[in-house]
Amino acid sequence: MTPTLQVLGKALDAAALRQRTIAHNIANVNTPGFKRYYVTFEDELRRALNGGGGLPLYRTHPRHLPQDALSLEPRVEQERTTSMREDGNNVDVDREMVELVMNTLNYNLLVHQLNGRLGMLRHVISEGRR
Questions:
Q1: How many folded domains does the chain comprise?
Q2: At what angle do helices 3-27 and 93-128 cross, to 10 degrees?
Q3: Residue 118: other Cβ atoms inside 10 A
Q4: Residues 6+ apart with CB under 8 A from 80
Q5: Which domain holds residue 49?
Q6: C or N: which end of the chain has fewer Cβ atoms within 10 Å?
Q7: What average pLDDT score do residues 75-103 get?
Q8: Over the stretch 16-33, which tens digit does the pLDDT of each residue have?
Q9: How far apart are CA 82 and CA 46, in angstroms?
Q10: Residue 50 forms beta bridges with which residues?
Q11: Residue 69, number of CB atoms within 10 A of its CB
């Protein structure tokens, strides 16, 4: 499996986890004291791809991915500092619905990218037999 396919797979995992997390937040919109959860992945991936602030390793090709990007995993964190209502709940349904739509679009884009990559591999394999 190529590094690009691995990163696409991890990004799909992050999007699926984000979908479940947003659904969990919406389900608890009326639970007193509930604090919303969110998924972090893209910012860590961006930092890993840009060198992470440390000493960058030499890459033979600018499109090669650093090992840091391949070992990243999505994380669920809780937003504890805000409150939307007097009972302590901080879930904003409008915000969650917007994030749900954005996540769905992102997921569809990732699936399209993955299908394109796999289609290229399929073409190379099938045309290579001739």
A1: 1
A2: 150
A3: 12
A4: 35
A5: 3-128
A6: C
A7: 92
A8: 999 999 999 999 999 999
A9: 26
A10: none
A11: 20
Separation between Cα atoms, residue 76 and residue 11, nearest integer Å = 14
DSSP 87: T
Mean pLDDT of 59-71: 60
pLDDT value at 60 more than 70 = no
Round to whole Å and give the CA distance between 67 and 128.
30
Q: What is the DSSP secondary-structure string of 11-74?
A: HHHHHHHHHHHHHHHHHTTTSTT---EEEE-HHHHHHHHTTTTSPPPP-SSTTPPPHHHHT---
DSSP-derived letter for residue 130 is -
83, amino acid identity = S
Q: Which helix (H) or strand (E) holds 3?
A: helix 3-27
Angstrom distance (rounded) from CA 92 to CA 96: 6
